[in-house]
Amino acid sequence: MSDPLAAFADPVREWFTSTFREATAPQREGWPAIANGNHTLILAPTGTGKTLSAFLWALNRLAVEDVPEDPKARTRVLYLSPLRALAVDVEKNLRAPLQGIGFAAERLGTDVHTPTVGVRTGDTSAADRRQLVRHPPDILITTPESLFLMLTSQARETLANVEAVIIDEIHAMAGTKRGAHLMFSLERLEELTEQSPQRIALSATQRPLDEIARFLGGNEVGVDGTVSPRPVTV
Q1: Of 68, 128, 131, 179, whose CA is between 20 and 30 Å from 121?
Q2: Sequence-distant (≥ 6) Cβ neighbours of residue 5 within 8 angstroms
Q3: Domain for residue 84, yes or no?
């Protein structure tokens, strides 16, 4: 069996192997697809390390790649949660790997960037929202509704450099009006960014995965005007 951590930087591998006995199935299957740049749907029931299934490759890239010179272009990973409480939980869950990777880098004598994390939901104060616009984080955790508001305000400029969008509990939004609004926002994000952001989603249900995958990928318009679904790795 190939090493699922082979493509990761040394500090990331060091932290993971010293913290966990082995990678879970969603992690082993999800990481290669994500590292390859594929739009990816991961079946990740509770207790299978779903946060790291979606996030670890992004943390790896943010740790080893150069930080954008323009501070307003700093946000490169967008995490979307259907619930405000879940958004807060994810922010807390990211603290351990971020700190652990940093400590591992120190032990190895390697310089890495420790990504910053910000949260914007309906509970975020006006002062904190302004702070997020002035000093965007590397990773922004938000909700579909807050994303829509950002895309229709001055805050939209802070999303112009987003490279990956992680959608949690996507099964809860597929086929709903709220989900349709989310996909509309993602298409607006496509127009804003120079390169099409990678879409990564987590689903806690097994069926209908094909329908959820089509929902995640949406459609793209070719240069000749033809419309086709974006391919998604499940």
Answers
A1: 68
A2: 12, 13, 16, 17, 23, 31
A3: yes
